[in-house]
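Archive entry. Fields below.
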Amino acid sequence: MGQISSPIMSVRQLNKQFGKGCEQCSNSDNRKLERNYCRACGTVYSCQNLSFDLYPGEVLGIVGESGSGKSTLMRSLYFDQEVTTGEAYLQPYKEGAVNLFQESSQQQKYIRNHLMGKVYQNPVLGLRMGFSSIGNIAEKMIAAGNRNVAAMEARGSELLDQVHIPVYRMKEAPKKFSGGMQQRVQIAKALSNNPPILLLDEVTTGLDLSVQANVLDLIKHLQRELKISMLLVSHDLGVIRMLADRTMVMLDGRVVEQGLTDQILEDPQHAYTQQLVHSLL
Amino acid sequence: MRIQYNFAFLDEGSKREIRRATLKAIAIPGYQVPFASRELPIGRGWGTGGLQLTLSLIGKSDVLKVIDQGSDESVNAVSIKKLIDKTTGVPATDATEAATLIQSRHRIPEVPLRTGQLLVLQVPMPEPLRMYEPSELETKRLHGEKDYSGAWLMLFEQIMKYRSVSTGADHPVMVNDRYVMAPSPIPKFDNPKMNYSEALILLGAGREKKIYAVPPYTQVVSLAFEDVPFEPESFPGHSCRQCGAEDVFMDELYDSEKEETYYQCNDTSYCLQRMNAQPLV
Ligand SMILES: [Zn+2]
Ligand SMILES: [Zn+2]
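PREDICTED_STRUCTURE:
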């Protein structure tokens, strides 16, 4: 990959904890935790000192089981929740000089609407199920300041076509669609403003295998065509293998291993990664 | 035995509280100010918000006009007038230009309002974003951040469904370039009358416990997309069968004897006044 170029997104020392912490667990170097949980005070450390870079046009996979902190990380990056501490920089935003987590909520909305797209595992979080599909896609364009109906309708139709939803169904509500189609509408919405970064959170989990394969194919195809940078979260190493150039393995809120996906699959170092890879074979 | 009511029914403490909310509403054009809605001898949803404004503001030297969807003589308008008359002795009039205080449901009179007059509008649903976002906490936050994507999305949905903006009434407006406001279910025809109105306009929602205001000479712009302009109702080629008026808001009626539709001023006192001014044939 183009690792010579500078990253499009950099995350440094991202921490997210639920609870106040205590003497036993406040020091990140030697906290006594059961998995990510402090028995003494009940604090949960969902993300601990996460640092990584995402490069232009790259798909960075994040694999881990539920409770590993990968979805918490995604929510933090899309400002769905506040981080406890940490920094994130986006090259297309103020030339990567400003910590996104320190920006006002209005600026964070600007970043969400113009520079990012997100596809949620649960389509209810990403779509208004009772509104039309074209309206769902337009919502993101409206949020980015578009006030031209014809332009939004044209762009929305183009996107629906790209995600293989017949344009004549654009006025139907996602609640009438199958799970796979709902994810396609989410993808179309996420892409509507041509964001340089796409966040994908377990997008195929819960879908039938054949439908999964179709959605993954679509993502792969769009990624090649649009050269969009993606953060791809999954508990399924098979999904990661299919799409990710590089991979981070997360366990109990920490990154335990990272590297080229092929390398990790061939020669896993950490015991947990070895277990994951073996279960894949 | 006759019960002695306080002047204008409400006790002085309640009136003061309503006036305080009203002053705040005038100071922040278009912003919904909460108030402790009182019980009145008419049911909530029958104009109690407007009535509380009227009762808290009426003085002995006022001249009152009450209209219900253009009619001074509807049961609802008459019973409100009776209540106010019984508890204040303030005379009522049908003539818009003679009134100092006008309470109205779903219309702004045809006779242009002037400085010194006060228009009170009854509001069933004060929150323009409610259909988009059910949570009051969330809509308050959206107003705070001036995030009106939801209002635009609802208009977009209508255009997708009906190929035009189908809001016959309560078409959302931007007040003073800051707050999006529900103008109450007045026809779109009346929206432009709010823009730089010489009279103070107060809006009261009894059930929803909100007061808001358009102070005199305040900009009020009806929301419209670049390529789908705001279009008030118009009645090209039609005139009022009774008074011959053309540029007014008209009701379409059906004459079963002649088997034809005809048009008539919706504002009955305006129509009567015009007829009275015409020479007898
Ligand atoms: Zn602790
Ligand atoms: Zn007439």
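CURATOR_NOTE: Chain A has ten helices and nine strands.
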